[in-house]
Write a structure and sequence with these properties.
alpha/beta, Maf protein, 7-stranded mixed beta sheet, 6 helices, 7 strands, about 30% helix
């Protein structure tokens, strides 16, 4: 395996897979931060704050010499400006899906890259339109276990694809790591991509 070019501050296998897709060798270094939203905090502000916080959290644990750039991301689902986090239980997941059913909502993903004294971040915002979802369908979907750790209680790349009628924006951003914005951020680190992006 090629030497890591960056550190990924995320335990998400989806984000790691997306980095491999574009040939970025990386090392996974999960971090834990408080993901509670603040009163009056807009969804875009929320994901930006968490992505930057995750990047700084990992960076501060690294030795001063030989630090690799740190990449972090955060994704949220929003409906009419309200943040939908990860459901804490079955009832919360079903309530989220009921509100998203038959409507168009937004998915915001922020990606942050920290290297040296430089922190750069981008936000990808997309719209997802769902068909009407029946209560039995929601209950069967919950029983698969897929919604439990997903913002908004669903995974676009998983079984919830049958609920989605239309997507406008970045598919990879909805999954959890907008690849166009990520590549642009990586390109801002001198010599990083020239060092050889390889899976």
């Amino acid at each position: 395996m090629a030497s890591a070019l960056i550190l990924l501050a995320s335990a998400s296998p989806r984000r790691s897979e997306l980095l491999r897709q574009i040939g970025i060798a990386h090392e996974v270094r999960p971090v834990e931060v408080d993901e509670s939203s603040r009163p009056g905090e807009a969804p875009v502000e929320y994901v930006l704050r968490l992505a930057e916080q995750k990047a700084r959290s990992l960076w501060n644990t690294l030795p001063a010499d030989g630090r690799l750039p740190v990449l972090a991301a955060d994704t949220t689902v929003a409906l009419e400006g309200e943040v939908f986090g990860k459901p804490g239980c079955r009832d919360e997941a079903l309530a989220m899906l009921a509100r998203l059913s038959g409507r168009t909502h937004q998915v915001h993903t922020a990606v942050a890259l920290l290297h040296g004294a430089t922190l750069a971040a981008r936000v990808s915002s997309s719209s997802v339109t769902m068909r009407e979802i029946s209560r039995p369908e929601m209950e069967r979907y919950w029983a698969t276990g897929e919604p439990a750790d997903k913002a908004g209680g669903y995974a676009v790349q998983g079984r919830a694809a049958i609920f989605i009628r239309y997507v406008a924006g970045s598919y990879s951003g909805i999954v959890g790591l907008p690849l166009c914005e990520t590549w642009e951020l990586l390109g801002g680190v001198p010599g990083l991509l020239a060092a050889g992006a390889t899976a």
